[in-house]
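As noted in the main text, all predictions were made from sequence alone. Below is one such record, for Putative aminopeptidase.
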Amino acid sequence: MFFLFFSGQGCIPYLYHLGKEQAKILLQRKAISEVLADPEIPETTKTKLKEVEKIREFGIQELALSPEGGFKSFVQLDRPAIGWHVSACHPLRFESYTWWFPIAGRVPYKGYFSLQKAKEEEQSLKDQGFDTRIRVTAGYSTLGWFEDPLFSSQLYEDPGDLASIVIHEMAHATVYFPGDSLFNESYASFVEDEGSDEYVLKIGGPKLLTDRKRSEEENKLYKNIILETANLLKTAYSEGGTEDLLLKKKTEIIGDFRKKLLQTKWTKINSKKLSERDWNNEDFIGMLRYNSGAQYFRKRFLEVGKDFSKFHEEMRKLQEKTAEERKLLLEEK
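Prediction:
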């Protein structure tokens, strides 16, 4: 997800870029009901839009998600993705480069609707010595300032994947702490995982849910290997040392990670291609950003009897804590 708010750090060209593209989106939006009534729209698209309507209603009624989470309208894009976002991390410690935006607060990513503009931003950060990465933007939120639409790039074939993207973004509209991306993204990812499983169970029963989990096993293993490496790097940097020593540790840990990718038996993942990638700190801290605190969230969820309404309310109570205090909660074992 990236947020479309204007930055005080940035400059007129960036504001113009966001404003122009956001205006296009507002003009191109069509109510899903209107799209469904259009005889020119392919039936395959209509089927997916009907699924999104069901998921949105399920999110509100069964997962206690905010009805302000969008997905009542549709935008047909003329590009393969909503946009691209740039992230950066210090090369020898887990410290993200951040940008400040009104409402959203300080966040570790900057979104663009143009890949070329994202590449220019990335190059600027590389020139300053940061580890960087450009990622495709899968989700989109203005935190209720506009009615966020569903985009054509989000019309996934699998109902479970559709549920994942809708529920994740609706979760952001339900609980959000400005400036605390670690908590916000990890909370939304937890709700996404639990909620999409509930939806798949509802529409297809235990067998479909079992099949889905089986198909996700390899991706889960891949993600866990990245998280394991991220925590090794985090520990190494926290131990301190000279730049040469930290660089040596970083090189060794990432080297071991590459070996593990190659040694693991995969059926779908191209381990050779992945092992040759220019892995850096941003890749690993990025995974932590979206996948921290799983044990903490599950414990709280079980304590309220898997009641989503009570769970969200417990999470809202954490507003009284600082981002650092919430970070410590996510590190609980």
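Residues 2-9 have pLDDT under 50 and may be disordered. The chain has one domain: 2-330. These features were considered when defining construct boundaries for the mutagenesis experiments described in Section 2.9.
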